[in-house]
Amino acid sequence: MLQSLVSNHPEVLYDNFDLITDLIQSYSNQNKIGISTAIMWVLAQAANFNFKHGLQVWRTFMLSFIEQKNYTRYSLDYLKHLFSRSHNRQRDALSIPEYLECVDLLFEYYNIPKSCLTELQSSCKLFRERTSLKDAGKYFLMVLEEKIPQPSSTLYRQEMVAFLYSLLREDPYACFQHWRDVYANNLPESVLLLRLIYKDWQNIQSNEILPYKETIFTVETFNFVNQTLYKKKMQSEGLDECNRIVQTITTKMT
């Protein structure tokens, strides 16, 4: 009966947030963890028919316990099963702001045990792959200039760079234009994205995942900017590595 109630009326959960949270917390010690996870399992039934309800349950109830060793893996496993049960990718797609908010929550607000970092990376990839990249060009600069430079963990930065590459592939003309405009002022961040492009260069050439002429034009523009900075004898962080990658890609293009 409780399972049916949660599945059909998930608003009951949110209306009783404090009560349910206190109930889970009261059974959170090692000897009673089976009871608290059983309660979480009942809450998870909200996801059976509605992906967004399931995600809201995770954010509202499970995320607040993710730092506790008894619950970290359970919370991350729930995400994996939530995404696997959702088959309507268009209906259940996250917006870019929703994706950024979820990843920020995982990395910036909670201290997740190191033993679960692999699951954490997998969870972020699930969010990324389920995100609608509509308006990719609109968010490219924000991720490049605001998200990647944050003094955060290496894993967070890796996830943001991977997402930045997804935006670039979705709307390459707009994103390349934005990138060329700000490249000279964002060399340390540009290094990270250039590494991905270099690593994926064979795929770019053979499968045209990026428009080849636009990519070449961007690389040539970066090369010109690099040489201009060298002539001005400007010591810019990231310039040397950017130049090495650009020169290597230029060689591969000829």
Automatic annotation (TrEMBL):
First and last residue of the signal peptide: none
Keywords, sorted A to Z: Apoptosis, Endoplasmic reticulum, Glycoprotein, Membrane, Transmembrane, Transmembrane helix
GO cellular component terms, A-Z: endoplasmic reticulum membrane; Golgi apparatus
Stored InterPro entries: TMEM214
Top-level taxonomic group: Eukaryota
GO biological process: apoptotic process
Pfam family, one: TMEM214
Stated role: Critical mediator, in cooperation with CASP4, of endoplasmic reticulum-stress induced apoptosis. Required or the activation of CASP4 following endoplasmic reticulum stress.
Subunit and interaction comment: Constitutively interacts with CASP4; required for the localization of procaspase 4 to the ER.
Protein name: Transmembrane protein 214
Source organism of this protein record: Cacopsylla melanoneura
